[in-house]
């Protein structure tokens, strides 16, 4: 059945972009305390 289901490319790119944004946000939050110190 998975063969009949076709995932749009823009959806995959959107998820990847979201994951990238979350990773950047986490990195910024992690570096913020060090920057303040």
UniProtKB/TrEMBL annotation:
<protein>
    <submittedName>
        <fullName>Uncharacterized protein</fullName>
    </submittedName>
</protein>
<feature type="region of interest" description="Disordered">
    <location>
        <begin position="1"/>
        <end position="37"/>
    </location>
</feature>
<feature type="compositionally biased region" description="Polar residues">
    <location>
        <begin position="13"/>
        <end position="31"/>
    </location>
</feature>
<feature type="compositionally biased region" description="Basic residues">
    <location>
        <begin position="1"/>
        <end position="12"/>
    </location>
</feature>
């Amino acid at each position: 059945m998975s063969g009949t289901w076709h995932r749009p490319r823009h959806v995959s790119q959107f998820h990847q972009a979201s994951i990238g944004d979350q990773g950047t946000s986490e990195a910024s939050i992690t570096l913020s305390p060090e920057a303040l110190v």
